[in-house]
Each structure stands twice: as C-alpha cells, then as structure tokens.
Design brief:
By secondary structure, the chain is an alpha/beta fold. About 40% of the residues lie in helices and about 15% in strands. The protein contains 10 helices and 10 strands. An 8-stranded mixed β-sheet has the order 1-10-9-2-3-8-6-7, sandwiched between helices. A two-stranded antiparallel sheet has the order 4-5. The longest helix has 21 residues. The two termini are about 30 Å apart. About 40% of the residues are buried.
Length: about 325
C-alpha cells in the first residue's frame, strides 16, 4: 500500500486515504470497523487476508464476511498478456466474472453423525441471473464477442443446472454476443492448452476461484494480475488471486504490479481515467526493463527498484505533457 500512495503522490492523484488495519486474526469489531469505513467511502483498496484452515469451524473467513456484508457479488479480473513478461502463451486477453457471495462459500457445514460432514452449496436463481446479466453487460460495454459459462451441470444437475439455465436465459437478451458453456474440468485443460479461445467467462464462486488462479498463472503469476469486487453500492479492489505472500513479506522482492494495476481499476471506477491511464502506462512500460523484474517473473530486481522504474516513467510522461 505504501507503494500505491507513493505513486499516487507523484502522479498528483486527487485521492485521500483512510487507512484501516485488519489482519486475518482481526476481531469482529476490527472487521466491522473496516466494513463501516468502506460503507462510508464506498470504495476501498484492500490488501490480502489469510484464511487459516487450522482455525476452528466457528471462525469465518474475514474475506468472505467482507464480501457478503457489502454484497460485492461480482469478482472481476482481467487476465492479459503483459509486455516484457515471458510466458508459454501469448495474446491472452480474458475477462473473468465470478459470483462472489454464494456457492461453496456459503459457510454452511455440519457434522450430521460422527465422521460424516455435509457442506451445503447454495445456488439461487436471483444471484445466478444477476451475475450472468453483469457478465453479458460487461461483455457488451467492452466490445467482447463471446461469453462462456463454466459449470458442472453434468453432475450437479440441480445446482449448476440452475446456474447454467440462468446464463442461457440472460444470453437470449444479447443476440450479438455468442454464448457457450464448458464443464469446469475441461475448462482448466483448455485454458492451459489454448487460452486464446476464451473472451469473457462467467462462473459460480469456487470454480471462479480456481479458474482465476489458473489464468493468473498463464500470464505470469499472482504478482501481475489485479482484481475487483463490485456490488450495487460499493467496490473493493485487490490483487486477483488473493495470495498473502507471507513467504516474501518484508524482503523487498514482492512484485508491486498487481496492486498498482488494482489501484488503476479503482481510479477508473472513480472516473479518474486520466490518472489511471498515466499510472497504468507507466507500470506496463516499466515491465520492458528486465533489470527491474522481481524474482517471481524471473528477474533479480527488488520492489523498490520496480517502483522507482515506474516513477521514472511517470516523471517522463509529465515532462512530455508539459512540452506538448
């Protein structure tokens, strides 16, 4: 976050920050303070919070509570091949839309008898229609040609069958956009084999989490891809894959790209498009300099060096504007 504030300051972005500190072990009161701050400001830039699977079942994911409390129903990430980053596949450009508030993340589990646990997956028509409509409207606004619904309706005929039927229903209102569907296991194979076939993808919660991570890996990893969570009233921006990066914390080797690009998505949401454009162009231009690549993308550069390279690009664009 310090790097975002530094970049914003040099780019003269007209945004003030209200900082709220929340950790994965945060108390309910701390979490509610964060939620109240987001309700107050209507927008947030969020760091990643670990959900420790060793904690008791009564402990709910702080990420999940935040998303459901604010009804941030649409998780959107843009997986796009980046300049200067060597990957197996090129020309990837996929918009991923994940339903963010139900499915396997409903936190409804119980042990019916000793040794038998039931976990409930909730799929509703209302929320399935809502996320499908969001995906098709996004595709229309972005000039996209195809929407693919990811599902497992061959096995979960009622739950995923309902989701797929809702997607088909919404697709009927967008005759200019091609609609197709794909079973989730085949989707992962197709992504690593020929990702260029995908344009916009829409899927329930768990599949979205898995597919988002696969796509992020295809374009270079978690340090490169931004994400956004949209609701009717609020928006929260973060890195796409929600990796906590504990193993590289405080080592000055974390890739700042994903969080900086997430901040650009936030600026676009705030209608500060010119500032978003300047920062985004600077971030992407800096990736052309392999000397500042961090270890996650095969370099030996530090976080500080990457940020300084971005600042140099911003200062250069400011000079060009002044001369123009």
């Amino acid at each position: 976050m310090l790097h975002v504030k530094e970049i914003f300051r040099h780019a003269c972005v007209p945004v003030d920050f209200e900082e709220v500190l929340v950790s994965s072990e945060a108390s309910d009161r701390d979490l509610q303070n964060a939620i109240m701050a987001i309700r107050r400001n209507r927008v947030a830039l969020k760091g990643n919070l670990e959900t420790n699977h060793n904690l008791p079942p009564s402990h709910k994911s702080r990420n999940n509570i935040l998303r459901t409390s604010l009804d941030l129903f649409a998780n959107v990430i843009h997986c796009k091949s980046l300049p200067g980053v060597a990957t197996r596949h090129r020309d990837i450009d996929i918009l991923m839309v994940r339903e963010n508030t139900e499915g396997e993340y409903s936190s409804l589990e119980h042990e019916s008898v000793s040794g038998v646990v039931e976990s409930l997956k909730i799929i509703t028509k209302t929320k399935s229609l809502r996320i499908a409509e969001y995906a098709f409207q996004l595709a229309k606004e972005a000039g996209r040609k195809k929407v693919t619904a990811v599902h497992k309706a061959n096995i979960m005929k009622l739950g995923d069958g309902l989701f797929l039927q809702c997607c088909k229903e919404v697709a009927g209102g967008y005759p200019d956009i091609t609609f197709d569907s794909m079973i989730v296991d085949n989707t992962t194979m197709q992504l690593v084999s020929r990702p260029q076939q995908f344009d916009v993808m829409v899927m329930p919660n768990l599949y979205g989490n898995i597919v988002n991570n696969v796509c992020a890996g295809l374009v270079g990893g978690p340090g490169l891809v931004p994400g956004a969570n949209y609701g009717r009233d609020y928006a929260v921006f973060e890195t796409a894959t929600r990796n906590t990066g504990k193993s590289i914390a405080s080592k000055n080797i974390a890739n700042p790209t994903a969080m900086l690009l997430a901040s650009c998505m936030m600026l676009d949401h705030l209608k500060l498009h010119s500032y978003a454009s300047v920062i985004r162009k600077a971030v992407l231009a800096s990736l052309d300099d392999s000397k500042t690549h961090t270890p996650d993308i095969g370099g030996q550069g530090t976080t500080s060096e990457a940020v300084q390279s971005i600042l140099k690009q911003i200062r250069g664009s400011a000079v060009n504007l002044a001369q123009g």
